[in-house]
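Backbone geometry tokens:
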Amino acid sequence: MEGKKRPIGIPVTGGLLIFSGGVGILAILFQVIDSLRVYGIGSLLITSPTALIGFVLYGMLPVLLYSSGVGIFLLRPWAWWNVTYLIPALLIVFFLCMTTIVLREQLHLHETSAIDLVIAYPVLYLNSLVRGLLLSVPLHFYFRRSSIMAWFEGE
């Protein structure tokens, strides 16, 4: 695609991913420093499968966002796959998880399972699902356009 001007959505999406990944990495870094200061090194140990899942979801997501943003700028096919399929799915999961966290904190339901919260508050979860879809569906369909896909097939 030499000589053609890159569509504006590619660098905009790449920039947003780099920014959100960078902010996420900094937030996690500050949380780790604060945790070390208050609780010591033991607060960083992964002691259960749930802690491992939390580390993978919350610790690796900013790295995925940042690296996908760089990959989008460099027109890498793996970054196209991430932005087209993986990140839209993660956006939906993010909104649903945030709804669970907010409900547990505001209603002091820390021991309640997520399934019970979905059954008790379906409208809130439906609202979160719609928010995730409103962000992820346009992203998915923009990067599925043949004119955009052609930019990532050149390697």
Observations:
- The mean pLDDT is 89.
